Amino acid sequence: MPRSQKRPALYLAGCVLAGAALGLGLGFADAGADAASAPAPAAAAATPPGSLVFIRGGDVWVADGAGGGQRRVTTGGGYTVPSQADDGTIVAARGTLIVRMDDQGRVLNTMDPPDLGGTSYPLGPVLTNVEVSPDGQRIAYGYSEITPCDGGSCYRARTDVTAADHLTPPMQFSVPFDHASWVTSRRLVLDGGYREMVQLYDLGGAWDDTVHWFDDADHYSDWHSLNEPVVSRDGTQFAAVRGEGTATTVDWYRLTDDPRSAARPGLPAKGCHTALTAGVASPTFSPDGSRLAWEQPGGIWVNSAPAAVCEQSTETLLIADAADPYWSAAPYRPGSVTPAAVLASTHRPAIKGKARPGVRLKATAGAWSETPAAVTYQWLRNGKPIKKATGPVYRVTRKDAGRRLAVRVTATRPGYAAATVDSQPVKVARRHHR
């Protein structure tokens, strides 16, 4: 279920001429005719299972599957794109930080991932997409931006994966696609390549091992962007945001093959779509697949019928004044503690000095949203801690030659959760030049 900040749906691989796809009417086929002969699903429970996490007023909130019991999990604002693992752990972005907490708001750890995409065209540092895996072990994160190119606009994106409890080196899984959503705890569905494409990626492979699943053009002659793709937990339904600008819908489909296991699933069958409007985003299935929720003007809306029965579809406002919904299988729990405040990094630590053997490097502490009571340092060699290198100054050794050094700064303050941020790495010269 992809979590992303709202932005125009122009895509990355080629250039999209300014305004070329904006404000056009979408020529949807009548999905009801396709679905009328499909068997009706079993009746859904009165209160769907799981928990809904969402954003209201810049903070993370949680509610039960019927939208009841709404409570705030964080304070201080600045949060976006929350998601929740099956064990209740919540992950959200806060500017440049990934914040991981329990469902009561107690912060477990924070991470400041580096920019992605190489040195020529790095993307970052403000996160646009963050999602925790169902098993809570990994976090997909990413950056995206729109830049001028050839008289129009080009969309660039990059997605990577880190361990949930500590930041792992980037580029292990990095792929040039966007809106990563977990199909399983080892497989992601993403959009990109071209703006109408949907991709599947298994962790551990190179980015060019990504499987091109299907395009919007496979269903419509007047194809449009497909963004924020999601797959239901049982592997029987797919949904995405279709369209651009003020002309967007959530479309959902019936799946003929199981994308949790099939190397390249077959083409999804067209199902239903919401009414054409602006501001549609963040589709998310209930854990049992009986409902689909999404964001559009007014708050979080829900549809009570899956893709098979379009004529029975009813759109209802579930949670007013809310955004970025994510439906988790985690059981809803009432609140019991006051949400913890979080120190936020406003400027990443930096390394000063020439990175070559024999030279002393000095680390800055960076800047923080509140003045820390204490700051600690840990120097890293190729992402791994260097023994006894725990001060603001580090003398480069021969072991460092040809490798990358960074410094990890942890800030603490009474009443706040500790925050940890890594500097951008510097590469050490292989030999000392006079």
TrEMBL record:
Coiled coil regions in record: none
InterPro entries: 6-blade_b-propeller_TolB-like, WD40
Secretion signal span: 1-31
Record's keyword terms, sorted: Signal
Protein name: WD40 repeat domain-containing protein
